Amino acid sequence: MDPGDPAGDPAAGERRRMGQDPLLLLQALQTLWSTRERQQLREEAWRGFAALDDPLAGLLDMLESCRGQRGEGPSLEAWISHQLQCWLQAQPRPSLAQHSLRLKQLQARAVKVLTESPPSLAAPLASIFQLQDADRSCLLAHVHRLHHEGRFREAATLGATLKLQSELGIEKMSVPLLLQDKVALVERYVAGFPELQRRLLALMDSWCQPGFDIKDVARQYPEVSSLSLEKLSPKVLSRQVLRLQERYGVAPALCPNAAIQQRLAALRHLCHKRFVEKSLSQENWTDHVQGLVGQSPWLQEQLSQLLVSHSDPVTAAQCAMDLLLPEERLPAAVAVELRRFRLQGRATEADSRLEVKDVKDRYYQLPIPRENVHLLASWEDLTRHEGALLQRHQVVGIDLEWTPVFVAGGRPRPSLLQVAVEGHVFLLDVLALSQPPTGQGAQAFSQLVAQLLSDPSITKLGYGMVGDLQKLGTSCPALAHVEKKILGGMDLLLVHRQVPVAVAVSEGAAPRVPARAFRVVCDNMLQGLARSLRCLGVDARMLGNGEDHRRAAEVARQEGRIILTSGQPFHKLRAQVGAGRCLSVDCSLKAQQQAKAVLKHFNVRVTHADIFSRCQACNCDQYLKVSRDMMKQLMWLSSHQEGPRSSGDEATQSQAVQEPGPVPDAAPEGCTYDRPCRWLQMADLRAETPDMLADGTRLQLAGVPVGVLRTPGLRYFYCCTGCGKVFWDGSHLGRVATHFRDVLESAPSPCEPSPAPSPASSPF
């Protein structure tokens, strides 16, 4: 007879004689299990447990009798084990004494059952029989056997359930799981074990090392199926490492390779923005790239390759000179151009620096000597200047700077807390002081900031201070919700929002500026704002993507325009054009909100007639009116004209004429546009190219859907003489009037009816 069979166990026979037979209970539960009557099944199980003289031994009797009968899917044995676990927790029964002989006997049987059971039994058996205190050699041997058989997930799950992690190798247990993209399981495996978390991060970071090939690791585990190596590329893996580093509160120094990969991703993004999208000026691009590359030889080589792939050797050499890249890191062709630049004295950056020195007085100069600007990066620095920072009855200016992030999923982190008192500026290096989170520097920093903000005798001034402190609390847990503890603080953002209103009230006689007389120049980061202002009739010029922000000052001086800018260039530009001629625009606002803020700030008068008085595309304010019949004729002639025209243009124009297309939305009732302008005459067009004005401007007829020509009530179109763009009356006018109704003057409703043109005035 099988010694594991309870039928041959005298103790089991004795239990059957003196109380409920566990095997009879199992039979009853098996019958109900097949009927799926779960409520009845639970009630029967709990009654049976109560009738057993020894529920723990009875469970083992039932599990041992089921050996070899377990199949796929939910297991009755696992369900019974879980229900007994719940029943024991609900019963006020004395537990077996730890290390007692009876408990050891039950643990030995439970371990044997566990080694022959599915993973679903591990958790309830470990809880019921206190297997964390059982003979660990048998448990470890079982986990190692599962791992050897390639059952990596089961091995890790069982090892975590039995708290065996410190006795199992982190690399052995985690590598196969990482190769299968089971990062979440690995995170659960090391939960609660800080040392294992650090070792896991060090392992994953080593895979981010430049030149590392994850396939070399995969070849060491031929038994691993369903490899997910694409999820372990340096780009993807570095994000996981940095996420776990922040979650575990590990010092950045432990993950240098992931940080390098993140910087490389940022470099690629910046090169795309500069050379492909052309949405970054050379100056801004250089500033960001210098901070990312630093003195890393590998990043310098990667940047050199990126420059060559995105530009010609001359441009790459100019960028390399601006960035002070070592010549030995550059490809041969770029190095030759760099030497030529140096020999010919065409160092653009050096020239610009000399120019800045010559006109230094045109820039804002901080009225504080350099020796009174203090960088605090350690607890010793904080202790040395604590008295000056916490001096009672003083006024303190506070601002927070952020580390820019150029990779997907990245989150800006507070990097520098600026605290200004009379005659001194203190720059607190948040990144250095907050690492490690439990270190002396982090504690001193949190205590000093909390004391500074909570002292009502110290007046704190900031702009958007509450939002900054909320984000600071997310990076420094000791400062969580510190914004709610400010005493004696004044947020200048709230004051700023009230300034236009206060000025209007106190200076009621201040002249208003008509929209069409208001002239601005927007930097290349505010192109959406420029288009919104043009929509309201403002003469808004915007810099191109490749133009430096200093060009805005030249345009402002030459054409008498006001500069609208954002970010760092504001102070430099303001110093060049004088007070009141440069405004810093909040980039967190949408373009329409920015436009409203600008109009209110400069007291600009906008009427309904100003809407669409300028072309949003080119800023021109001269239109030609075209009747619907004339537009039909022009579109037909344009699509059938003979002469040199690319096949692509022919296809576009022909498609615009032949395809019927849907009828666009008509303008709302009473919401029309009738701008006074000259009618288009045949003399305005070139005879050989009827879609081109005499000055060479080609009408953009391809952008007019044929369906528009069938719009009820639509009588005429408008052509911009500057770029040839074609406009017509539609629902957009009403939407714009609605969006800007709070800045429109004398507008009783979002749309005002306009008189229709006289038929006699039409030349057609």
From TrEMBL:
Region feature Disordered, mapped onto this chain: 1-20, 639-669
Domain 3'-5' exonuclease, residue spans: 390-473
Protein name, UniProt field: Exonuclease 3'-5' domain containing 3
GO terms for MF: 3'-5' exonuclease activity; nucleic acid binding
Top-rank taxon: Eukaryota
PANTHER family the record matches: 3'-5' EXONUCLEASE DOMAIN-CONTAINING PROTEIN, EXONUCLEASE MUT-7 HOMOLOG
Span of domain Mut7-C RNAse: 519-622
Gene3D superfamilies documented for this protein: Ribonuclease H-like superfamily/Ribonuclease H (3.30.420.10)
Biased composition (Low complexity): 1-11
A single GO BP: nucleobase-containing compound metabolic process
